[in-house]
Automatic annotation (TrEMBL):
Protein name per Swiss-Prot or TrEMBL: CoA-binding domain-containing protein
Organism in which the protein naturally occurs: Granulicella arctica
One Pfam family here: CoA_binding_2
SMART domains named in the record: CoA_binding
Annotated ranges, domain CoA-binding: 10-103
Xref: Gene3D superfamilies: NAD(P)-binding Rossmann-like Domain
Xref: InterPro entries: CoA-bd (IPR003781), NAD(P)-bd_dom_sf (IPR036291)
Length: 134
């Protein structure tokens, strides 16, 4: 978990499902996702209470997505992570990124034991910026 090579490989992804993406611009899920969009990533919002956000159709769950995203990026509290891991296992999704400040080590261990690669308690936007040449 959180190995530099793993972070680099996830940053090479093209499509990101964002669980918990908010339509409020002041929320980290919104501005981090907007930043990733601006840097060429395709965002798939996963939030059952929204129709669209950041110009993209929002989906109720990972199972409802029209594609298999390269990375699942999570902006939900730690108690939601086990169910997200379950859904990822069912769908065969390989990469889980759990945003900074969100930690569920048991779910991460189960995910990794089942073949899911995990980055946890790291910000996708911060890591993307860090990886850019100066």
């Amino acid at each position: 978990m959180n190995e530099p090579e793993l972070i680099r490989s996830m940053l090479a992804a093209k499509s990101i499902a964002v669980i918990g993406l908010s339509d409020r611009p002041d929320r980290p899920s919104h501005y981090v996702s907007a930043y990733m969009q601006q840097h060429g990533y395709t965002i798939y919002p996963v939030n059952p209470s929204l129709d669209t956000v950041l110009g993209e159709k929002s989906y109720a769950s990972l199972s409802d997505l029209p594609i298999k995203p390269d990375v699942v990026n999570v902006f939900r509290t730690p108690n939601f992570i086990p169910a997200i891991v379950d859904e990822m296992l069912t769908l065969g999704l390989p990469n889980l990124w759990v945003q900074q400040g969100i930690v569920n080590l048991e779910a991460a261990a189960r995910a990794e034991a089942s073949g899911i690669r995990v980055v946890m308690d790291r910000c996708l936007m911060v890591e993307h910026r860090r990886a850019q040449p100066s």
